[in-house]
Design brief:
The complex is a heterodimer of chains A (113) and B (113).
Chain A: E1 3-7, E2 10-14, E3 19-26, E4 31-38, E5 44-50, E6 56-58, E7 64-68, E8 73-78, E9 87-95, E10 98-103, E11 107-112
Chain B: E1 4-7, E2 10-13, E3 19-25, E4 31-38, E5 42-51, E6 54-57, E7 65-66, E8 76-78, E9 87-94, E10 103-104, E11 108-112
Parallel strand pairs in B: 2-11
Antiparallel strand pairs in B: 1-3, 3-8, 4-5, 4-9, 5-6, 7-8, 9-10, 9-11
The chains are: A mainly beta (113), B mainly beta (113).
Chain lengths: 113, 113
């Protein structure tokens, strides 16, 4: 069965500092992995996705994530945090042939001025 | 503009009074799904539909019903709401391919008193 673990329900970083949000997954077959972002009072929108092509995936707003099979991880990074990055971030996993998309519990990112 | 439209945005009701949350998408998507979002629990899938007249249970289907009579619409029905169904609800849609991104509605905040 597929599952996702997001370490850290709250992460605070200073403006201009590195952002690192952690995601580990469990899947019995090669997974599809996603990061979604939720801004206050909005629905979720896709940041980036991994679907078995390049292991380093670039997304919108300067975010990227690296798929590491040996570590079953898909951590989200951004070199320099901006105030507008304050939001909740969700990692999610699905599998080929499986219509279910499983979300992690989310990480709320706060940017300190 | 491609979008998923949910109504209402906010809803306050009392225990046992039947209600329907509507969801419509204009992208001709095959797949539609309902999620509920609760603090600390992330998004959990309630029901999903692969196409017209094809629906299936997600992780937390108890107390909910859905129907898919038309491709564009996927209403969520609470026949006898209870306080533990107080939550933020999201409808989402995508193409039939599970590696494609989900498009989310803006959410419905439901309070059951």
């Amino acid at each position: 069965a597929q599952s996702v673990t997001q370490l850290g329900s709250h992460v605070s970083v200073s403006e201009g500092a590195l952002v690192l949000l952690r995601c580990n997954y469990s899947s019995s077959v090669p997974p599809y992995l996603f990061w979604y972002v939720q801004y206050p009072n909005q629905g979720l929108q896709l940041l980036l996705k991994y679907t078995s092509a390049a292991t380093l995936v670039k997304g919108i707003n300067g975010f990227e994530a690296e798929f590491k099979k040996s570590e079953t991880s898909f951590h989200l990074t951004k070199p320099s945090a901006h105030m507008s990055d304050a939001a909740e971030y969700f990692c999610a996993v699905s599998e080929f042939g499986n219509e279910k998309l499983t979300f992690g519990t989310g990480t709320r990112l706060t940017i300190i001025p | 503009e491609a979008q998923v439209t949910q109504n209402p945005r906010y809803l306050i009701t009392v225990t046992g009074k039947k209600l329907t949350v509507t969801c419509s998408q204009n992208m001709n998507h095959e797949y539609m799904s309902w999620y509920r979002q609760d603090p600390g629990l992330g998004l959990r899938q309630i029901y999903y539909s692969m196409n017209v007249e094809v629906t299936d249970k997600g992780d937390v289907p108890e107390g909910y019903k859905v129907s898919r009579k038309e491709k564009r619409n996927f209403p969520l029905i609470l026949e006898s709401p209870s306080p533990n169904q107080t939550s933020l609800y999201f409808c989402a849609s995508r193409t039939e391919r599970s590696n494609e991104k989900l498009f989310f509605g803006s959410g419905t905040q439901l309070s059951v008193l």
